[in-house]
Amino acid sequence: MLNMTRFEAQIRERGLNVFNVLVLKNGTLVGKVDLAEDIRRLQHSVSKSFTCMAVGLAIEEGKLSLNTTLKDVFPDYAFAHKEALPSMQPGELTLFDLLRMSTGHDSPPFWIEERLALKDVNWIQHYLSLPLDRPPGEQFTYSSGDTIMISAMVQARVGQTVKDYLIPRLFAPLGIENVDWETAPQGITLGCAGLQINTEELSRFGQLLLQKGMWKGQQLIPAAWVDFVTQKQIENNGAGDWGQGYGCQFWLCTHDAYRADGAHGQFCIVAPDPQVVIAINSMEDNMQAILDTVWEEIWPLL
């Protein structure tokens, strides 16, 4: 086992409210810090990366493609914006635009405050009513609304919510039972947030990704899909670990790693070269400081 004493000391010294950390190498637990009980916690935007797995399965089944547009799936709501060019019609947004968050909104739809205010609104219709500020595919703008629409597209094409679709295909094989995932209006799995799992369950998801979708001899997710979504698909303009580029519902990290992450410090870091998964649950807004401590105090031990 790794000596995690320095990491734990630095977390305490920096006042970072980290609950649990698990480190797997070659599929084996090699490091663990528990500063609280490892209970299921809200995963915020880590949920996006699970939604992305449903997309890969739906594409494999021929139900969707990266070029599928919102108009293809929701023709009743994709009315034309008279003032907009054909290339600026929200109905022309593709699944790929949504996955890499390049949909052309300056102010992304469905931030949490807006979601609370729009509970009684048809969210699909609302999203498609919003004009685009620039052509899609040109610029990254982080958007939970994009992931909500991804979830809606999957549901419309496979005939199940993302949660129900993933239970036999992903959650059950990983041993994640009694899945709790928030539902949006129209009965859509929220997709962008709302999943509750613990750190140990999150580490299993990371190991699945590291193994390119393979789990106990069964290919749960197409390997090519895992490769595709965890590679840089668009540049972003952040700093540190938020400036390394974005895949499809995954962030790229420094140190040639990638991650699912969620607000207040949930992380599922996957580093293919050293064959490492680092799963973290926290309630901490200084998320870069958590990652800095990982790179400083855990990474050299690997």
Q: Describe it for me?
A:
- Helix content is 34%, strand content 17%.
- Helix 1 packs antiparallel against helix 11 and helix 2 packs parallel to helix 7.
- 46% of the residues are buried.
- With 302 residues, it is an alpha+beta fold.
- The chain is globular and about 60 Å long.
- It contains eleven helices and 13 strands.
- The N and C termini lie close together (11 Å).
- It has a six-stranded antiparallel beta sheet. The protein has a three-stranded antiparallel beta sheet with strand order 3-7-4. It has a two-stranded antiparallel ribbon with strand order 5-6.
- The mean pLDDT is 96.
- The longest helix is centred in the N-terminal third of the chain and has 15 residues.
- One of its GO terms (molecular function) is hydrolase activity.
- Pfam families: Beta-lactamase.
- This is Serine hydrolase.
- It comes from Paenibacillus odorifer.
- Keywords: Hydrolase.
